[in-house]
Amino acid sequence: MGRHFLQIPGPSPEPDAVLRAISATTIDHRGPEFQQLGLRVLEAVKPVFGTTNPVIIYSSSGTGAWEGALANTLSPGDQVLFYETGHFASLWVEMASRLGLKPEVIDSDWRHGVDAEAIGARLEQDTDHTIKAVCCVHNETSTGVTSDIRAVREAIDRAGHPALLMVDTISGLGSADYRHDEWGVDVTIAGSQKGLMLPPGLGFNAVSDKAIEASRRGGAARSYWDWEPILAANERGFWPTTPSTNLLFGLEVALQMFAEEGLENVLARHQRHAAATRAAVNAWGLEVLCLDEPYHSPVLTAVLMPEGHDADAFRALVLDRFDMSLGAGLGRLAGTVFRIGHLGWINDLTLMGALAGVQMGLRLSGVPVAGDGVAAAMTVLEEGAGA
Amino acid sequence: MGRHFLQIPGPSPEPDAVLRAISATTIDHRGPEFQQLGLRVLEAVKPVFGTTNPVIIYSSSGTGAWEGALANTLSPGDQVLFYETGHFASLWVEMASRLGLKPEVIDSDWRHGVDAEAIGARLEQDTDHTIKAVCCVHNETSTGVTSDIRAVREAIDRAGHPALLMVDTISGLGSADYRHDEWGVDVTIAGSQKGLMLPPGLGFNAVSDKAIEASRRGGAARSYWDWEPILAANERGFWPTTPSTNLLFGLEVALQMFAEEGLENVLARHQRHAAATRAAVNAWGLEVLCLDEPYHSPVLTAVLMPEGHDADAFRALVLDRFDMSLGAGLGRLAGTVFRIGHLGWINDLTLMGALAGVQMGLRLSGVPVAGDGVAAAMTVLEEGAGA
Amino acid sequence: MGRHFLQIPGPSPEPDAVLRAISATTIDHRGPEFQQLGLRVLEAVKPVFGTTNPVIIYSSSGTGAWEGALANTLSPGDQVLFYETGHFASLWVEMASRLGLKPEVIDSDWRHGVDAEAIGARLEQDTDHTIKAVCCVHNETSTGVTSDIRAVREAIDRAGHPALLMVDTISGLGSADYRHDEWGVDVTIAGSQKGLMLPPGLGFNAVSDKAIEASRRGGAARSYWDWEPILAANERGFWPTTPSTNLLFGLEVALQMFAEEGLENVLARHQRHAAATRAAVNAWGLEVLCLDEPYHSPVLTAVLMPEGHDADAFRALVLDRFDMSLGAGLGRLAGTVFRIGHLGWINDLTLMGALAGVQMGLRLSGVPVAGDGVAAAMTVLEEGAGA
Amino acid sequence: MGRHFLQIPGPSPEPDAVLRAISATTIDHRGPEFQQLGLRVLEAVKPVFGTTNPVIIYSSSGTGAWEGALANTLSPGDQVLFYETGHFASLWVEMASRLGLKPEVIDSDWRHGVDAEAIGARLEQDTDHTIKAVCCVHNETSTGVTSDIRAVREAIDRAGHPALLMVDTISGLGSADYRHDEWGVDVTIAGSQKGLMLPPGLGFNAVSDKAIEASRRGGAARSYWDWEPILAANERGFWPTTPSTNLLFGLEVALQMFAEEGLENVLARHQRHAAATRAAVNAWGLEVLCLDEPYHSPVLTAVLMPEGHDADAFRALVLDRFDMSLGAGLGRLAGTVFRIGHLGWINDLTLMGALAGVQMGLRLSGVPVAGDGVAAAMTVLEEGAGA
């Protein structure tokens, strides 16, 4: 009974208007109506990335967009510097290995954002520029920590290093402040099923001129992911292969909603919900995984379970009793962390319902709860409510 | 952003499956596919009313179904005994007057259910049986008080009075225990937009054999509301005029959901949500309008605003800041009462979101709030959650 | 497989955009969002009726709107002059009788429109003005014949008779030219499920000042149908009882589609489809029921079955073999007539599919078919296609 | 006005039930509800391919599934034998080149199916087995010609050659007879937006044991397309990356529709529509592109424009005047061919509407039309209609 509470950090609950839009009959992807749709969507998507350059839209998951970024710019054997902020960063490293690249990884405790200094230091050592790209995750979905991408760019520049900067903001885009052009990112990777509030099925690559040049000079053997035919077809509003037309219907609606609310307001809303959620976690006496104060994710909050309590058993109880999905701990955090998503088509009261569900679930699971997190969250939300 | 919290006592939030069903293209209401639909729906609706007799389905609001009940069984000039439990009872009286009936009203303080003894006493006086019908509201939507309909029937029978018993359970059906046959009701009036979780547009009359006989013997001049041609056409699954086919699509889905959950579970769920809501109101130090302990409505809770505070200003703030609709005080309760609906396609966490919205709204409105109602509600919901 | 061909003269196939609109969650019918919707819809509906006066919208079928027209303006015992153009006119007469009015009927052969002269002649005889209203059907759904309403008004005026003019354009509105104000109609009756391309569930009364005055002075005992409280509430965008909100969502979309296409284009489109259909019927060597050349309905075409062939058996075969619903012969036309609807969300190719289905069905039914009606229809449609 | 006629050879019109299914809110792709969905869909999809082996489902277009087939089984430098039946076969060759394979192409006139003898002859010459795979298109979407895949397998076997057999049935699956296991295909490539009647966004690889072995032994550097992690996750109903959940919702519904209708009936229906379409083309005096009598596609019919007439101008006129999309001539057929799709959620009358649109469009374009193709098509459809 009632709407399921989908409080994982993506896929996120979609607006009804988006869902209705994707339920229209598919149109001819070679016809004039599609062409106008294509041109509108390709233009309207740019501001969300903070770019005036093209944005490639793949029929794929976000993972596919990772592969697109790597395949277009790097050749087998190329060395790539990754910063492992969490599980998804580690999966991207694994992909790079499988694709024949040579990933080098700066490890971390999975509780902080990217250490731009460490990246800079490594690049300074790389005097013959064997490192071809630096890859970071902007909003690490497994930990709820964001990273200072501008600082990474500055560190690369300070090192005078020509490496490309590639950033995964799959779960950040449309929820956390992001500026592809201003921050000097070369390839930005995103997906449809997070802040864009669409079903999964679209992957994105926002590309700098430098990235496009790199793709023209080299990259891996590639076809599906190849930017060139897509960019060429996109100029007239088309795709070289059959696009996910129905998701593009939805994307147009979602982008209109962004434009109406105003991107700044969208970001402020996420920050507010994140602050309320952290207030709840603190009141419960639980520990937020992120230790990096300015880098708490506005998209999700990862919470450490107290010793002796299994996060997955807790999540199963919450699902069973309260019909709410929470995110699991991933990789080395499995069983010890649960994640509360606060993105997508939700509002203050949805969030309060979700936090009430967490609080009741904790108590029913026998987890010691220090105080009333729901009350603490309300205190945060009362300020500036509806402003 | 996010789904609106529709916490009025109806129309209630519809299940997605119901909304999808009503969005199918209308079919030929004279064809075999419709016929099968008609037969299925007319049969499946009976258990919700607790009847094995026919249920008439009008294309109308619930108000229309009031008129159907009166027009089929009573003739202009007939005397009818009403018990005024609240605003909707008073509107029904007004309708009776407009239709040329002679309503006699037993007044009340709008904070208790029907006093069956008072009805019995009045009927005993009516030795020449000028009173043709007794009309009561089962779940008074304006006050959040239910009434003991079985007791009313018993009082009528004890008085040895032949009056028909007509009961409005527009906002009770599908949420509060109701038994047309067992309680000896002659005409039960209901609507689609409350516990049945459909959009407004269908009105219902469940009818006893005695009521049908009365309609054959007399009643007012009537056409649209006339049971006879409807009952005749319904036998083969049809309607004499164009039915609201798309709402019947939705009704079938809603009734399937009832059958799957089990009517007893549906009723228990409403009771649980009502108990949690009252716990919140009590904790806030506010007064529930209903003073009749066993007759708190499982559908809605009406709350008295403290002196000096305007319920409508509070509701406007809640709508503006938290995108939640609450019910207004009606009639003599205007401005002094607000109503929280807890019916329709909601669950524990929806209710917690709603109560959090009320609590935040009260504080932001400057209403003195004694304690944490949200916490009190969670205590109720933790017990038997998901059971 | 495939979309059902719903080629009855209503309910008509709804636009996808309308169906999506009605599938939105119902909103608070007492809140500000509804108020704006109400004000917009009540204004936007007027041009389709050709009026600047109010239009009452009931939660009811079109039949209910008949009752609304009669109940507000006429008192039991009032004499009313009906012109029986077909089955629906006869049903309206039957309703009048049931409601205690005294209908007087000018009969016809059901193959022509209203004979305004006959009405005028009758009114001239009625020197003491016992006839209170003249009731006609503008587009007789059972016969496919329209009537010259302007001529009826002129005949009434020439007779210097004060009778109200009430017109049923349930199946004409939005498809056939109609001008409430210009033609001097007092009450126009319509429904949602025909030219307005909505599901059934809304009934309409467009009202002249004279009709409103009549309703204030008299009319029958009434409540649900009473214009006065509706007009009063409508002034602020509301309804006195719970309106069919979801159908109002759809009505707004349908009216926007009308505004975009332009009412003149809408009417021309129906005329074109009707002409193509008649060309097909003529080519088949079958007889169109309507014998009144200028009054062929743009909404539907009724076709006489040749002797010895059962129209209902033919319709059943078409439904079974080609998944198309055609309209039955009604009343005295049962079994001898079938009706092809050409209204609602259809286009040239839908119509061609429908006519092909009729032609194949005729042949498979063993009905002698003189020539290729489909080819004849194409010849009509080729002219001005897409213009 | 009215539903667009989408008569391209895919994307095809989706059933309303499919569109409603994909408009449900996305669920947690790591939760138990998804798991059950995954297990059901992965099992239910097998019969459509005629396999009991696993079917990999990608979030991608059909083109992505081509890449999946190649990347898992072939290593850069591997020689692959392609048979160019048309434009899509040539695009697949181009992909193979881009991915570093060495395609060898047996050319054709694009008007016949695969010449299995020619493939056998080539393989017999390849005594050292440098050819690693034979790639064919089962239903060539650009030409409307199918191929005898069983004969190709037999030719490979007669040559005693170990090459893998990879078959693209992107536009054939669910419309044309296909038997992955029985015909000994190693990798079958398909997509969602054709016979499966879904929006684009899913790519499929049905895989033989031999293909899986080949992928374990070798293949290209790969990640997104890698079968192994998908097969492993699929065993429990999950995917390693975020799947296109909403399309899986739709896929389940489409597969249920297949099961209800029966795959044989589905195939017969397509054959019947194809026969009716060819009868129309012949009657018009136009030439069907396919010259291979038993290999006319049941999915689409490609038609040659007479000299001096531009197929694209004709298609533009049909779109403008009759709101119907037809397929363009592709590659070397551009401008000289148009294609009529007869797949997806259509029925006899939809097809008749489409053929009427083509016939009227031809006449309005000034193309000499010998006879009445619409009449000819009706003659075909009358036989066995609805059987």
From TrEMBL, chains A, B, C, D:
<keyword id="KW-0032">Aminotransferase</keyword>
<dbReference type="Pfam" id="PF00266">
    <property type="entry name" value="Aminotran_5"/>
</dbReference>
<protein>
    <recommendedName>
        <fullName>Tritium exchange subunit</fullName>
    </recommendedName>
</protein>
<comment type="function">
    <text>Soluble hydrogenase catalyzes both production and consumption of hydrogen from suitable artificial electron donors or acceptors. This subunit catalyzes the tritium-exchange activity.</text>
</comment>
<comment type="similarity">
    <text>Belongs to the class-V pyridoxal-phosphate-dependent aminotransferase family.</text>
</comment>
<dbReference type="GO" id="GO:0004760">
    <property type="term" value="F:L-serine-pyruvate transaminase activity"/>
</dbReference>
<dbReference type="InterPro" id="IPR024169">
    <property type="entry name" value="SP_NH2Trfase/AEP_transaminase"/>
</dbReference>
<dbReference type="InterPro" id="IPR015422">
    <property type="entry name" value="PyrdxlP-dep_Trfase_small"/>
</dbReference>
<comment type="subunit">
    <text>Heterodimer of a large and a small subunit.</text>
</comment>
<dbReference type="GO" id="GO:0019265">
    <property type="term" value="P:glycine biosynthetic process, by transamination of glyoxylate"/>
</dbReference>
<feature type="binding site">
    <location>
        <position position="339"/>
    </location>
    <ligand>
        <name>substrate</name>
    </ligand>
</feature>
<feature type="modified residue" description="N6-(pyridoxal phosphate)lysine">
    <location>
        <position position="194"/>
    </location>
</feature>
<dbReference type="InterPro" id="IPR000192">
    <property type="entry name" value="Aminotrans_V_dom"/>
</dbReference>
<keyword id="KW-0808">Transferase</keyword>
<dbReference type="GO" id="GO:0008453">
    <property type="term" value="F:alanine-glyoxylate transaminase activity"/>
</dbReference>
<feature type="domain" description="Aminotransferase class V">
    <location>
        <begin position="20"/>
        <end position="312"/>
    </location>
</feature>
<dbReference type="InterPro" id="IPR015421">
    <property type="entry name" value="PyrdxlP-dep_Trfase_major"/>
</dbReference>
<dbReference type="InterPro" id="IPR015424">
    <property type="entry name" value="PyrdxlP-dep_Trfase"/>
</dbReference>
<keyword id="KW-0663">Pyridoxal phosphate</keyword>
